[in-house]
Amino acid sequence: MVMKKPHSQTVIAAILFVVFLVVAAGLAAALSVVFAPVKLTLNKEDYALTFLFHKEGAAYAEIAEVALLDESYSSERIKSYGGISKQFGTYKNEAYGEHFRLTFSENTYNFILIRRADGSVTVFNQKTKDATAALYEKLQEKLS
Question: Among 59, 95, 93, which Cα is nearest to 75's?
Answer without folding.
Answer: 93
